[in-house]
Amino acid sequence: MSWGFLRDLLSGVNKYSTGIGRIWVAVVFIFRLLIYIVAAENIWKYEHDEFECNIKQPGCENVCFDHFFPISHIRLWALQLIMVSTPSLLVVFHVAYRENREKHHNQKLYKSPGEIDGGLLCTYLISLILKTGFEIVFLVLFYKLYNGFKVPRLVKCDIRPCPNTVDCYISKPTEKMIFICFLVATSCLCIVLNLSELSYLIFKYSIKCYLKRYIKKHQ
Fold first, then answer.
1. How does pLDDT run across 95-144, given as a tens digit for each residue?
2. What region holds the Connexin N-terminal domain (predicted)?
3. 168: phi > 0 → left, psi -120 to 50 → alpha, else beta; which?
4. What is the dihedral of CA 93, 97, 98, 104, to 10 degrees?
5. Is the peptide bond preceding residue 161 cis, with omega within 30 degrees of 0?
6. If 0-12 CB within 10 Å is exposed, 13-18 middle and 19+ buried, where does residue 209 land?
7. How far from 179 is each of 59, 133, 175, 182, CA to CA, in Å?
8. How far apart are CA 63 and CA 179, in angstroms?
9. 72: part of which helix (H) or strand (E)?
């Protein structure tokens, strides 16, 4: 899979972001997307082939693997990356709409089509709320699916067609757990950045509205 589209999307959003938003783009691009492409993808590449159980009963190993890994960590991580990045398209589309509107009317309708104010501010706030929501949903999903953020060395399985309780071994559990902890840490950092940017924009807009009312009142 080519991640070029996600890189281009993040680069486009960076032009219309606040300072905190640019930090978020850097964290997603450097500490999540690049880490995924360069290192994490290879660790889970052969996870099914390297999952071993101490029994040769046909189908037992496959059923146990499916039970303990209903969704691959790496595929869920990829889905999370896509989902938390796509709300930024709302901002890009809104700016494109403004630019197209100016061309259609052949006059300057906005001080700057990319300036975060009015309708674009609402769109930006909605994108931040969606990104934060997706981050939290995926963290909860990770926790629920894998019973925490730990990767055990040994799991016991007694699901049919296994004739009895068998021991199954996960390959490179320590390395996988390090990357999962890194994933959780970067997700939490992104949540903090999104909430900080949300608070900053609301506070800035509130101060701006208050000053306008204050000036009008004294005039």
1. 777 778 777 777 676 666 656 677 778 888 898 999 999 999 999 988 88
2. 42-75
3. beta
4. 160
5. yes
6. exposed
7. 30, 22, 7, 5
8. 25
9. none
pLDDT digits (tens, 9 = 90+) for 53-109: 887 778 888 888 888 888 888 888 888 888 888 888 888 887 777 778 777 777 676
Q: What angle do CA 102, 204, 81 make, to 5 degrees?
A: 75
Distance from CA of residue 166 to its chain's centroid?
Answer: 36
Q: 131: which 2 tokens?
A: 């990104």
Helix, strand or coil for residue 160? coil
Instruction: Compute, in degrees rounded to 10, the torsion defined by CA atoms 195, 200, 203, 209.
Output: -130
Q: What is the pTM of this model?
A: 0.82
Q: Is the pLDDT of residue 34 over 90?
A: no
How far, in Å, CA of 79 to CA of 19, rounded? Answer: 26
Rounded CA-CA distance 147/185 in Å is 17
The angle subtended at Cα 206 by Cα 201 and Cα 209, nearest 5°, is: 125
Q: How far apart are CA 133 and CA 27, in angstroms?
A: 18
Beta bridge partners of 154: 169
Q: Nearest-CA neighbor of 150 among 177, 184, 182, 171?
A: 177
